[in-house]
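Thread: Newbie trying to understand structure tokens

Hi all, I'm a second-year student working on a class project, and my supervisor (Dr. K.) asked me to get a predicted structure for one chain before our next meeting. I've only ever worked with sequences, so writing a 3D structure as a token string is new to me. If someone could post the tokens and maybe explain what I'm looking at, I'd be very grateful. Here's the chain:
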Amino acid sequence: MAEPMEELRGKVAISCRILAMEGLVDEILGHVSARIAGGDEMWIRCRSPEEEGIRYTTVDAIRRVDFDGKGLHNGEPYRVPNELPIHGEIYKKRPDVGCVIHAHPKEALICGITELEFRPIFGAFNITAMRMALDGIPVFPRSYLVTRPELAAPMIEIMGKKPICLMTGHGITVTGKTVEEATVRALNFNTLAKATLQVAQTGRKAPDISREDIEKLPDLGSTFNDTWVWRYYVRKLKEEDLRLSH
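---
Reply by user tm_fold:
Sure, no problem. This is what the structure looks like when written as tokens:
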């Protein structure tokens, strides 16, 4: 069953604020979108002349446009992100994707520009992040702004059916079936990137965990991995907002 429109719109705004709270996006850079069921439209984080940054995203900043960015009415103070093709072109080519996140986490940036390899160096600490390393992270080697469909095409080709792409010298693109899944996936990848970078900074090479240990790690399911973790960050966001308001 399709998610209620305004509920989906609200989740896009919450995802933006969670990602900013956790340091995956900074200041005004980064955006989240969600596919609207039944057509070629999406909710996407836009900017207005009153822009205050991703951390302070309101529902009003989440606007409904088609996959080419058309749909804003004359007089609306909002404009779509310059890199809208990251979102629209993925939705066109991958009907399984329900949410797209483009973010600029610093640790992933450093891993990319120093060509650090993401390996399964931990296990039960974060099973989902370990499986990301095991599955492999596609790396797009260019650093330009993805402002046109033809610039998005080679990144999407390298990304393939994978849910994550590291964009060298730029950021990351993460997909999911839902806003919750994509958001938690981005956070888990950030954990992997942080661990990869911090191990490299020790000057030692951590060994991969054993195949035997990998085989003993369970699939904890979407409720554990997505729903509950999402709820944790929503609660954390509310408490952080309350703290800042006092």
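A couple of things are worth pointing out once you decode it. The mean pLDDT is 94. Residues 221-245 form the longest helix (25 residues). Feel free to ask follow-ups in this thread.
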